[in-house]
Amino acid sequence: MLTVVTERRTAWVLQHVAAEGPAGLGVALEAAGFLPRVIRIDRGEDVPAHPECDVLAILGGPMGVYEANQHPHLAHELRLVERALAAGRPVLGICLGSQLLATALGATVRPSGGLELGWLPVDVAPAGTRWLGDERLVALHWHGDVFDPPPGSVALASSSATACQAFAHGRALGMLFHLEADLAQVRGMAAAFPEDLRRAGLDAQALVDATAQHVDAAHRRLRQIVATWAHG
Question: Fewest CB within 10 A of the end CB: N or C in the chain?
């Protein structure tokens, strides 16, 4: 009897800081049939020039997409995203990743003047249920930058503080919020960015406790979203 070996497809995941790794996204990608390869930009790994992968995911980070002068890798990432889009690859952007994706598609990312931080509701628009599921979800927010939906995209979700929390453009999906975060990641982010917690008036332990309450539902939702995004 012949044994058929099916090669797993590859998912590149760009990581910008140690505290914001794939966490639940890695699990979701594997569940969708992908072999994740994490490219550690924070450790000096080069951004690939061409999307020699089946899907591309870009994680968060504290820098702004408009700060390429201080963070030259952002310009390389923008070129990679543009080439992935041109090649028809599914692209997923989370937080900073969504800002890179929005910029590549022609939107302008700008500081909001505030900081949206904590496990907070996201309202899913009718057009967003295909991508994001039910009408409301609870996700970790940790951002001070915002953008309008890129030209030609579909706005998928909003929150009380941010009009565009998610958008879709062809096979590309941008989410400003975090569904991938787990307890270890939130502890790491709280330790790495204490000034953000102070600005938001949040206690690190309270944020960890909220993560324990919401993480399982967030990861279930993320697995559904990744399957929809990756397989069309």
Answer: N
DSSP alpha helices (H): ranges in the chain? 24-31, 73-86, 96-104, 129-132, 183-192, 194-200, 204-231
pLDDT digits (tens, 9 = 90+) for 135-175: 899 999 999 999 999 999 999 999 999 999 999 999 999 99
| Residue 102, domain CATH | 3.40.50.880
Residue position matching structure tokens 């995911």:
57
Instruction: Answer yes or no: is 185 within a domain.
Output: yes
Domain that holds residue 194: 9-231
Tally helices (H) and strands (E) across the chain.
7, 9
Q: How many domains does the chain have?
A: 1
Instruction: Phi first, then psi: give them for residue 86, nearest 5 degrees.
Output: -65, -30
Q: Phi and psi for 117 in degrees, rounded to 5?
A: -145, 135
Q: Which residues sit opposite 205 in a β-bridge?
A: none
